[in-house]
Specification:
Helix content is 36%, strand content 19%. It has 127 residues and is an alpha/beta fold. Helix 1 links the parallel strand 2 and strand 3.
Length: 127
C-alpha cells in the first residue's frame, strides 16, 4: 500500500501506509512524514505500528521530539490505531494521549472514521 492524500471536510490529509518504513527518530518523522505532507496536507495520519516502540516510552524523549517537529512545521499529527498495550505499560502515556486529544495539533485516534469525525466543522449551538 502507498501513502494516500484524501480530504475530510475540506482538510487535506496524508494517510500513511501501515507497511511503510519505521519512524524511529525525529529525522525519520521529518523525512518520511512531514516531507511527504509539506505543501500538500494539513494533517498526517500515521498508523501506530509505523512508530518504533520508543515513541510510546515517554522517558526516551522520542515522542516529544517528533511531536515538536509537527508543531514547528504547523502540520497536525494523528496516530491511528490501537495503542492499548502501550497505554497499559506506561503511567504517563495515558495522560499525554488525553491532553493531546483535547488540543488541535496531535491526536491519538482508533481509525480514519474517528479522524473524519474530528475534522468535521462544529455545528453552531451543538456544544
Amino acid at each position: 500500500m502507498t501513502d494516500l492524500l484524501v480530504e475530510h471536510h475540506g482538510v487535506p490529509v496524508l494517510v500513511c501506509a501501515a507497511d511503510g518504513p519505521t519512524v524511529a527518530t525525529a529525522q525519520d518523522a521529518l523525512d518520511q512524514l512531514i516531507g511527504g505532507a509539506f505543501y500538500r496536507a494539513e494533517v498526517v495520519a500515521v498508523p501506530a505500528e509505523r512508530f518504533d516502540d520508543e515513541f510510546f516510552d515517554l522517558s526516551s524523549g522520542m515522542a516529544g521530539a517528533i511531536m515538536q517537529k509537527f508543531v514547528s512545521y504547523r502540520i497536525r499529527l494523528v496516530v491511528l490505531g490501537d495503542i492499548t498495550h502501550h497505554l497499559r505499560a506506561s503511567s504517563a502515556l495515558p495522560d499525554l494521549v488525553r491532553e493531546s486529544n483535547r488540543g488541535r495539533h496531535i491526536w491519538f485516534l482508533p481509525d480514519l472514521d474517528s479522524l473524519a469525525t474530528r475534522l468535521a466543522p462544529e455545528v453552531p449551538g451543538s456544544s
